[in-house]
Each structure stands twice: as structure tokens, then as C-alpha cells.
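Task: sequence in, structure out. Protein: Methyltransferase domain-containing protein.
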Amino acid sequence: MSADLKQRIQQFYDQSSGLWEQVWGEHMHHGYYGPSGRQRKGRRQAQIDLIETLLAWGGVRSPQTILDVGCGIGGSTLYLAQKYSAAAVGITLSPVQAERAAARAGSAGIPLSPIETQTANAPSRTQAFFQVADAQSTPFADQTFDFIWSMESGEHMPDKRQFLQESYRLLQPGGLFLMATWCHRPTDSLAGPLTADEQRHLEAIYRAYCLPYVISLPEYGAIASDLGFTDLSTTDWTAAVEPFWGDVIASAFEPSTFQALLRSGGAPLQGAFSLQLMSQGFSRGLLRYGILAGKKAA
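Result:
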């Protein structure tokens, strides 16, 4: 990952995470509104439902050493650690996010300890740790984790293959990798390659959210298969998550939120002005919400 891209991603989340938490809570990802997207619910409940539905779809049972890639302010990390009484590590490029995640763990009474201490002493006790790290080149030893969770972080990776390869390295034999990520539509169908207009739409989203590029779900599946992942499964949950953007846009125009956005400026305001780009990308069939699960051979 280039130093410039790392810095832009870091600054984006350093600047925007506090406002997101204030308005939308600790989970910095889409919500789940039922398979067809027609279930009405509060956005925070929808975010919890996305976590639980993804865990069920992936057949996650009782992991004991968890890596949360792109952990934000620790929403998923702490949720998974508590749910499974597990040792969980969250990594992010944002020091602000890592610090806030650690503070949230303290408020929840969850001990903080590095993964080496977790696995050596009490892997079955709820623990967490947060650190700044690049998901394409992590500081962890081979076969450290039995479950790797990537909730909307793949889109930030400039080398998708390297990201999946690093995840494979970190998994224990039989361990599970479970990913939800922004994708563009498949290009191997009758619709054909992306059009110039679609490319321009994607590039506007890349600029707004500090993304290098996105790929299609079939491309992710091909990379994972080539790297040796077994028991591969993929599915498209675009319809299930699309209503989230309408909820976020509506909340952005609530008086208190709108005033906070204006005061914040910078990345938060840029992201808010780009919400419609995301909504339109989903509605025109360009953006897709891809899910992938795969295991490391035992």
C-alpha cells in the first residue's frame, strides 16, 4: 500500500470516526434489511442484524482467536469477542480509531492484551487488543487466528490478492475467512465490461471514500480459489443492504447532524456530500455488496 494512500485513509477515518459514532454508533458498516431489503427497522438494529446474518451464513461456531480487519472503533471486534468469549484483535490504519476502540473495550470491562499473551495464557476468555497495522502486511505470525473477519475493508486494499494471501497466511489450518465488501457488478455477463460512465461514477466514489478501486465478486472468488482457500462460497446481498443509504441520507439532514457536519468540515463533510453517489450506484446496479467465505485446508 502506497504511503500516500495509507495517509489519506488514515486521515479520512481520523477525522470522520468521531462524528460517525456520535450520530450512527459504533458499527461503521451497512445494515441488513432482510433478503429482499423490505424489512423496516432502525439502522443500528440493521447493523447488528448484518453481523448476525453474516455469521450464520458463514457457519461460524466458536472461534477463539479472531482478527477483525479494518476494525473501525471496535464495533465488530468487541461484539465478536463477547459473543464467543474469544480473544479478538482489531487492526486499522487510523490511530484515532485504535485509541477509541481500546477505550470502548475498557468501558465494557473487556481486558486488553496483545495476541501473544491471549493465545499463551487464556484463549477462551473474552479479551481484545487494537493496533495500527496494514492488512496486506501484518505483524502477526503464521497461523495465528482461527477466524478472520473483514467487514467492508476489502475495498480499501490496493492489492486484493495480497490482502487475501496475507489472510490465508494468518489462518490456522481449518480456519475461516469471512468477508463482506463493496464490489462493482460482474463484467462476465451480458452487460459486458464497465462503461465509461460507470467508470466515472466509480472514480467519484473512490475519491470521496479514499478507495484505490473495487472489483467484482466473481473476481474475488477466483483469487481466493487460486490462493488455496477451500469450501468457498459467495453471495450477493445488494438488495438486503441497499436501504441503508436512504437511512443514512435521511439522518444527515436531521438538524443536529447537519450542523455537526458543517462544523466538522473535511472528510466527514466530503463523505456526506457523496452519500448520493453510493445510493445511485446501488440503484443503477453498478455497486454490489459481495459476501465471501473460505477456509484454509486442514
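The two ends are 30 Å apart (CA to CA).
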